[in-house]
Design a protein that fits this description.
By secondary structure, this protein is α/β, with parallel strands linked by helices. Helix content is 38%, strand content 20%. It has twelve helices and 17 strands. It is globular, with a radius of gyration of 20 Å.
């Protein structure tokens, strides 16, 4: 599912900063932005080696600037933000178990880092800030989700405490990016290469799913449509974990010289901080949300929503859904899941 941008001027001739610009989402934001002839794209990340490789990959583009820095460092971020028009904030600590065992590190990056983005964007009179969020914030039970939820709240609140500054702030929330670096499919591939077993946490676990390109397409469309304070949520299919692992084994085992029947599946139990199901919109949020054919738009609770005005802005209706959860949606069939993975060149 892809949205067509209607205003090329959203990015054309603009200076754009992408934090976490070397990650799976951040780097794809950069690649897609280059199609719209921005004046300059600044790639802000704290990883030196990945910076070197991406510089080599995109060396033909003269409008890229590679900035080594960390969102925890407000002074460095303030320098990177000078003359910027649009910010895509993708920098975060995202792995659930790692955040569980290093909780304050998650706070420093996901919470303090986001507040630094807000402060420096206001200082530099940035036009728009788009925050990249996750389904882990919804009915969260883990540290990563809690810190990203607070980041979302900081972004929405910034719309109201900014005073007369022109900057507008919004978030994009989506589920699992199935082809991202370090995804579960990467783990499956490595385990199949060694003949198995392939480990899963629970065969009945369900997850929302989209590709990196789909996720970034939503992010860019958000920058075009945002009015401030919203959370944009893409409607997306779900998969059952057991179906995913069976499809990957069936498709990849022969390439590694194995019979798929000989690749065992081992259930290791749900990891610390994980849930059996995932939610993208809570019951409370649904009461404050609009809906289009392709997405939900959660309006900020800090002000009384003007539904009629917002409906016109987004060509949307007030949603009648009570929540948006993977427990309520029929999973993709194995055949359709396989088609998606093959078409996206994930397997």
């Amino acid at each position: 599912m892809f949205f067509q941008l209607t205003k090329r001027s959203t990015f054309g001739g603009k200076i754009i900063l992408v934090t976490g610009g070397l990650g799976s989402i951040g780097s794809e934001i950069v690649r897609q932005l280059l199609k719209y002839n921005p004046k300059q794209v600044r790639i802000f990340d704290n990883r030196e080696t990945e910076t070197f490789f991406m510089q080599h990959e995109l060396k033909q583009h003269s409008n890229l600037r590679f900035l080594v820095g960390d969102v925890r460092d407000k002074d460095r971020l303030n320098m990177a933000m000078e003359h910027v028009n649009i910010v895509f904030h993708a920098a975060a600590l995202k792995h659930v178990p790692l955040c569980e065992y290093n909780p304050f590190e998650a706070v420093k990056t996901n919470v303090y880092g986001t507040q630094n983005i807000i402060d420096t964007a206001l200082t530099n009179n940035v036009e728009k800030v788009v925050n990249i969020s996750t389904d882990k914030v919804t009915n969260t039970i883990n540290t990563m989700g809690a810190t990203k939820l607070l980041a979302e709240r900081l972004i929405s609140s910034a719309q109201y405490f900014k005073g007369n500054k022109k900057t507008i702030f919004s978030s994009v929330r989506f589920g699992n990016v199935i082809d991202s670096r370090g995804s579960i499919i990467d783990l499956f591939k490595k385990q199949i290469k060694h003949g198995g077993p392939v480990t899963i946490t629970n065969p009945d676990m369900t997850r929302f799913v989209m590709s990196t390109k789909q996720a970034v397409n939503l992010v860019l469309k958000t920058a075009e449509e945002m009015h401030g304070g919203e959370i944009f949520i893409l409607k997306m299919p779900i998969f059952k974990l057991n179906d995913l692992v069976e499809v990957v084994i069936e498709e990849l085992s022969y390439k590694e010289g194995y019979d798929s029947k000989n690749i065992k599946i081992k259930n290791i139990g749900i990891r610390e901080g994980e849930k059996l199901y995932e939610d993208l919109m809570t019951e409370v949020e649904a009461q404050n949300s609009l809906e289009t054919q392709t997405k939900f738009i959660v309006l900020s609770k800090l002000g009384l929503p003007n539904y009629k005005g917002h409906q016109k802005n987004y060509k949307a209706i007030k949603t009648i859904k009570e929540r948006y959860s993977s427990r309520d949606i029929k999973p993709l069939s194995k055949e359709l899941l396989k088609r998606i993975l093959v078409n996206e060149k994930i397997i």
